[in-house]
UniProtKB/TrEMBL annotation:
Gene3D superfamilies: YefM-like domain (3.40.1620.10). It comes from the Bacteria. It comes from Accumulibacter regalis. Coiled coil: none annotated. This is Antitoxin. Antitoxin component of a type II toxin-antitoxin (TA) system. The lineage of its organism: Bacteria, Pseudomonadati, Pseudomonadota, Betaproteobacteria, Candidatus Accumulibacter.
């Protein structure tokens, strides 16, 4: 784990971000004491619409028709 002062972070932010994107981690220090940690953002997973469709179909209707039933009856 690499450390960088606030001044180093200001002047070398692009290089530090490249290092973080490659899986690195940086601790920013102020007067020798850690004040922040920079870590990479976890990769996002694409939303799978079929999961939502399966949930809507499987969910019991609390009041009246379910969304799936409304679609079948052309109400939506």
């Amino acid at each position: 784990m690499k450390t960088a002062t606030i001044a180093d972070t200001r002047s070398h932010l692009s290089a530090l971000l490249d290092e973080i994107a490659g899986g690195g981690e940086i601790v920013i220090t102020r007067r020798g004491k850690p004040v922040a940690r920079l870590v990479g953002e976890p990769p996002s997973t694409p939303f799978d619409w079929s999961d939502l469709r399966d949930w809507v179909v499987a969910a019991p209707a609390a009041y009246g028709l379910s969304v799936a039933e409304m679609r079948e009856q052309n109400l939506l």
